[in-house]
Amino acid sequence: MRSWKTAANWSVFVAEQTVRVECYSGYKADERPMRLHLGARVLDIAEVEDRWYSPGETYFRVLTSDGDRYVLCHIEAQDIWTITAYRAAEPSPR
Q1: Is the pLDDT score of 10 beyond 70?
Q2: What pLDDT sits at residue 18?
Q3: CB under 8 A, 24+ apart: contacts of 62-69
Q4: Residue 94 lies in a domain
Q5: Higher pLDDT, 8 or 91
Q6: Could you tell me if residue 73 is inside a domain?
Q7: Residue 23, SS3?
Q8: Is there a contact between 73 and 80 (Cβ–Cβ < 8 Å)?
Q9: What integer pLDDT is reported at residue 15 of this predicted model?
Q10: Does a structural domain hold residue 59?
Q11: Which of 32, 43, 76, 86 places its Cα 20 to 30 Å from the Cα of 65?
């Protein structure tokens, strides 16, 4: 199993990349992410695996429909989303 730091394309996301995220809003605004927009690509979020809170920020570890994992950070005061970590899907055994 690869670590977050050795995953493919890690260097692309080290400098927290600002992204557009579509959210489900239930009892709370931006309750959980549903879609991630990366340039022209739109990734459906298959599962929110974990979430944790920091003063003024909420973090989500998500699994996308293509099998990649991202850690998204929502900075609530500015309503900005960033990618703070990325892990590529494990290649399928042949």
Answers
A1: no
A2: 87
A3: 62/33, 62/36, 64/36, 68/43
A4: no
A5: 91
A6: yes
A7: strand
A8: no
A9: 60
A10: yes
A11: 76
Residue 56 within any structural domain of the chain: yes
| Parent domain of 65 | 10-87
Beta bridge partners of 80: 75
Q: Provide the domain count of the chain.
A: 1
In the numeric block, the tokens 């989303």 are attached to 81
pLDDT digits (tens, 9 = 90+) for 35-86: 999 989 999 999 999 999 999 999 999 999 999 999 999 999 999 999 999 9
The residues facing 72 across adjacent strands are 60, 83
Beta bridge partners, 38, equal 41
- Using alpha carbons only, what angle is made at residue 90 by residues 63 and 30, rounded to the nearest 5 degrees? 10
Tokens of 6: 């050795």
Question: Which neighbouring-strand residues pair with 21?
Answer: 36
